[in-house]
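Sat 14:20. Reprocessing the chain from the morning session after the first attempt stalled halfway. Input below, unchanged.
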Amino acid sequence: MSDSNSIKKFAEKLSGALETKKRNDGQEFVCLKDGSPAWMTEVIRSAHGDKLPDDTTYKFIERVADALANASEDAEPSDVILEIEPDPYTAGLTAWLNARVDHVYYLTEVLEEGTGITDGFQLLAAAQQKQIHEVGYALVSALEEAAEQMEDAEPEPEEADESEETEEN
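Finished this time. Tokens:
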């Protein structure tokens, strides 16, 4: 079941369960709606990797889930992720960089790749896109795992028939 169609279906469910709220200071953040299934919490934890939950990762999870949910039926999840663009505005990119101290490591990774980027804006955009891709691939992996677990939890039609026959005897 863990093909791109099941990833799309699970992404649609996750996308519908994410909402944007405001904190007391007026700052917006993305979170799961109350009462969302436990598999969604596990998927989000997996997409965060070994980091504690943070607003940036939640926002990228939302962007990736929305993109996967809105993709065509035959779209490969990896292609959908690669099409997600970084923030086009310098203020958004610098806010991303400032959001977590470890975001500077994405800058270092881009520089180490030898891309030849010499423009600060392009460097920030490439670094942010690197994190978007990282979160996206982790999310797809977690969605695949959730789909497989759901499939494993469902009894096979033949097994259900056999158990009914046993009960009748």
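The chain has a mean pLDDT of 89.
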